[in-house]
């Protein structure tokens, strides 16, 4: 009997030990139901730790769309990435800052060598052209119905091709002029500017009077700027000439050039003569948009013709003289409402045939545009207005309030036209011909129209 009892007792003891060890293990791992007596909440399941996400690495190329922090270009973007990684630690973002001068060519080389970045923050002029060449990934699956209805049709037109969305619109502002208000205050001629009018509209003749006042009373200041080198800032020269001549750049269905009118040609002839008369900067045929804005930031130029609320913010730390600049719409021949092209900034994804990278890039876009904390912060850092109609009143500055009002002057931009990337290459060479005396305004605009219309037809035929 003793022999029988010993194995039984031993087995019983072993069973109890196993149960005790199991109970201890369960306690150490935590109770999935929580501990009611202690008031502890059940531990949340961390799916990421159970099945770790596969790390993804994406490359973001960015023009200086954000105001630099502490004078360092790209520093703010690094803060965005750090905040993004708090939510998405498995997505590594490689940032490369590019300039407005050399960036476009660098992008062209990258595309031609199959080394395009995954993500770009840019404008429709290039993005829509890339979309038409089937280089981008569509973004429709990340555009909610709320966002779709909150952005104007004019901005969506600049973001879509063939019914698909290829640019996620973020910030906007109408392109217009800026004036050195301080110059007019010192001259005692502030009344020559239309600042007492709610919409600030004014006539060509009023503008000429203001230029002459600068020439007569502030000899160290160039009255106004113009430029015709490279492609950057072409919207400034387009807006200037079309409004002075009360014309359109392209017709309403984008099928042909419309700027080669007698009135627009007369405006271009006036620009050529105004340069000779000292009302417009000399040597403008060899100046780029950045050269002219740099003269403005040095306090050497009274008017600059390629400006916006976005540029005003970006230039805040670049000023080389103390003065107050004020936004103004382009003057029109008859004082009618101006037609202003919209600046639109947004993000696009190159289709590099990697679905994981495309998905990761969409997450970064969504974070930049819509994160409850960073979305508004990022928008303000661009110095722009929101592309969304419901987001207003971001700034106390009077110029920003005016810029919001001036959105009513926004017209359809030519950037969505078929063949636009080629069209713009013909614009500045013809302006240069007029400025150098090799063609009249009408001859230059007619020559531009002939080449541009051919580009439009060729692009349409290729579809």
TrEMBL record:
Q: Which CDD domains match?
A: PBP2_TMBP_like (cd13585)
Signal peptide residues on this chain, from the entry's feature table: 1-22
Give the start-end ranges of region Disordered: 29-54
Matching InterPro entries, A to Z? Answer: Bact_solute-bd_prot1 (IPR050490), SBP (IPR006059)
In terms of Gene3D superfamilies, this protein maps to: Periplasmic binding protein-like II (3.40.190.10)
Question: Where along the chain is composition biased (Low complexity)?
Answer: 29-40
Which keywords label this protein? Cell membrane, Lipoprotein, Membrane, Palmitate, Signal
Task: Note the PANTHER family from the entry.
Answer: ARABINOSE-BINDING PROTEIN-RELATED, POLYGALACTURONAN_RHAMNOGALACTURONAN-BINDING PROTEIN YTCQ
What name appears for this protein in its UniProt entry?
Answer: Sugar ABC transporter substrate-binding protein
Species whose genome carries this gene: Paenibacillus nanensis
């Amino acid at each position: 009997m003793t022999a029988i009892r010993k194995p039984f007792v031993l087995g019983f003891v072993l069973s109890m030990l196993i149960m005790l060890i199991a109970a201890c293990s369960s306690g150490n791992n935590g109770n999935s139901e929580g501990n009611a007596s202690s008031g502890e909440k059940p531990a949340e399941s961390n799916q990421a730790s159970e099945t770790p996400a596969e790390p993804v690495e994406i490359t973001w190329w960015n023009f200086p769309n954000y105001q630099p922090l502490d004078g360092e270009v790209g520093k703010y973007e690094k803060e965005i990435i750090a905040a993004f990684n708090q939510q998405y630690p498995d997505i590594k973002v490689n940032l490369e800052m590019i300039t407005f001068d050399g960036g476009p060519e660098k992008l062209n080389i990258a595309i031609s060598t199959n080394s395009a970045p995954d993500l770009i923050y840019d404008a429709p002029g290039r993005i829509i052209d890339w979309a038409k060449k089937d280089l981008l990934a569509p973004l429709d699956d990340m555009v909610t119905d709320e966002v779709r209805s909150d952005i104007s049709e004019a901005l969506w037109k600049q973001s879509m091709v063939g019914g698909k969305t290829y640019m996620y619109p973020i910030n906007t502002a109408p392109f217009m002029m800026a004036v050195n208000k301080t110059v007019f205050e010192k001259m005692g001629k502030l009344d020559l500017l239309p600042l007492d009018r709610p919409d600030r509209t004014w006539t060509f003749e009023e503008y000429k009077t203001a230029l002459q006042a600068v020439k007569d009373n502030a000899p160290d200041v160039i009255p106004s700027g113009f430029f015709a080198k490279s492609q950057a800032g072409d919207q400034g020269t387009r807006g200037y000439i079309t409004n002075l001549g009360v014309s359109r750049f392209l017709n309403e269905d984008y099928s042909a050039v419309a700027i080669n009118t007698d009135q627009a040609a007369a405006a271009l002839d006036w620009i050529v003569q105004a340069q000779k008369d000292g009302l417009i900067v000399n040597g403008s045929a060899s100046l780029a948009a950045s050269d002219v804005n740099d003269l403005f930031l040095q306090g050497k130029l009274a008017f600059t013709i390629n400006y916006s609320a976005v540029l005003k913010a970006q230039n805040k730390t670049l000023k080389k003289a103390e003065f107050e600049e004020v936004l103004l719409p382009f003057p029109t021949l008859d004082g009618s409402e101006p037609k202003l092209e919209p600046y639109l900034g947004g993000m696009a994804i190159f289709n590099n045939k990697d679905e994981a990278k495309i998905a990761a890039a969409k997450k970064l876009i969504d974070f930049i545009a819509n994160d409850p904390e960073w979305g508004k912060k990022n928008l303000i850092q661009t110095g722009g207005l929101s592309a969304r109609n419901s987001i207003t009143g971001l700034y106390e500055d009077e110029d920003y309030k005016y810029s919001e009002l001036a959105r009513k002057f926004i017209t359809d931009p030519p950037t969505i036209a078929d063949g636009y990337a080629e069209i713009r290459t013909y614009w500045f060479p013809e302006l240069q011909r007029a400025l150098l005396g090799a063609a009249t305004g009408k001859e230059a605009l007619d020559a531009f129209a002939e080449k541009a219309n051919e580009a439009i037809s060729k692009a349409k035929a290729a579809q």
